[in-house]
Amino acid sequence: MPQTPDPDEDDLATITPWPPVYYAEQALLGALLSDPQRIADATRIGPDAFSTAAHAAVFTAIRTLPAPTMAEVADYAAAFAARRAQSTPGLAEPTEHITWFSKVLTAARQQARGLTAAHLHGLISACPDPRHTSAYVQIIESEHARRRLRTAAAHLIHTARDASLPHRVSTTLAEADALASVADDIAAAFPPHSGSLPRTPEPPPAFLHDSDEAAQEERLLLATGTVRPAEVEQMRWLAAEDFTLPLHAGLWQCLTALVRRHAPVDPVTVVWEAQQRGVLSAADDLRDLLAFLAEPDVSAPYLGERILHRSVLTTAHRVGRRIVAFTDDPVNTPYQLVVGSRRALAELTAIRTRWHHATTPTPTTWSPRRTTRTAPRAGPPPTTAPPISRIAR
Which of 100, 123, 190, 347 could link 334 by a cystine bridge, Cβ 3.0 to 4.6 Å? Predict the structure, then answer.
């Protein structure tokens, strides 16, 4: 969405730290005001592609109004050149014969009341060369793609953090789909090129959940899985990266390795496996590990699903922040933003698949051996059953 115009936006002498795209917008609007026929070169963008409400209003007016005749354009250009030659302080409102200019100003004021004739004259003065309209359009289109992607990523971050949502994971994944759709639109508009992977550093991790609660649930899962390893075999959708603590992640790997090797599983064998895998450190208290691994609490799949639920939201939040970091780096081209976003979303797709496996009920397999009765052998019926003719009677 266009930004609210700055109060000093009409004062061209005011030094404002506008980004480069702002001046491209000025140049494009100036080119279209001085040569309205060039609107045909700006069909790829709409009013929402502009960074300010004032620029969007002027573009809407230019695109909506019928283009003036060549005589009207020449008349306006001559009048504007005459005013510039007079070097009078401030430019007056356009005279009656400059019909095109007046119509644009009147229409644009319906959306941006602060617009003046001086502002439109300033747009024309800010255009270096109207023949470069296509280049200005490309700059505006690129920055609009950046803003669209950033907005979608910000929505993903906000949704992943919103604990008030009734279906938090499904809503978050829907926002991820919307973000992927924006990336696809940008990819279709901008051709690929070499050196496409962004080099923007990843933002530092952020914590969405209560770390104490998460650690307690992980300990309970490890204890339950150690006492009831058969439940661990059913939880292939849970991975070590879903755990918040490295020690718990390592113990889960040890537990699943023992289960899949069909090795004996108890607190002692799990701790020994952890030592063999280099999971333990000098700071770990072995007596504490043996104690909590021997105290199961609730169903392991239930705990595992809660851990995975937390991991999905954490991953979505991290992916959104990663994409926002891409869009905040001005050196990334639109296609680089697409490549970086798709790579980040692939991480979310992987855990999304595991979430689907964890939460989708396993269909009951139909077995002919259990449901089909053995056909009777040929011959007379058993003596215990009455003949069919007697039943009919």
Answer: 190
CB 277 within 8 A of CB 254: yes
Please give the Cα distance from 108 to 211 (Å, whole number). Answer: 53
DSSP structural state of residue 105: H
Task: State the pLDDT at residue 220.
Answer: 92
Contact 186, 338 (CB under 8 A): yes
Q: 56-60: which pairs have CB atoms within 8 A and are 24 or more residues apart?
A: 56/2, 56/111, 56/112, 57/108, 57/109, 57/110, 57/111, 57/112, 57/115, 58/29, 58/33, 58/104, 58/108, 58/112, 58/115, 58/120, 58/123, 59/28, 59/29, 59/32, 60/107, 60/108, 60/111
Q: What percent of the chain has pLDDT over 70?
A: 79
Q: Looking at the predicted structure, is the pLDDT value of residue 118 above 80?
A: yes
How is residue 183 written in tokens?
Answer: 């990336």
Q: Hey, is 159 helix, strand or coil? A: helix
The predicted structure's pLDDT at residue 366? 38
Q: Are 163 and 129 in contact (CB under 8 A)?
A: no
| Number of helices followed by number of strands (H, E) in the chain | 16, 0
Q: Could you tell me which of 87, 180, 80, 157 has the C-alpha nearest to residue 124?
A: 80
Both tokens of residue 169? Answer: 């994971």
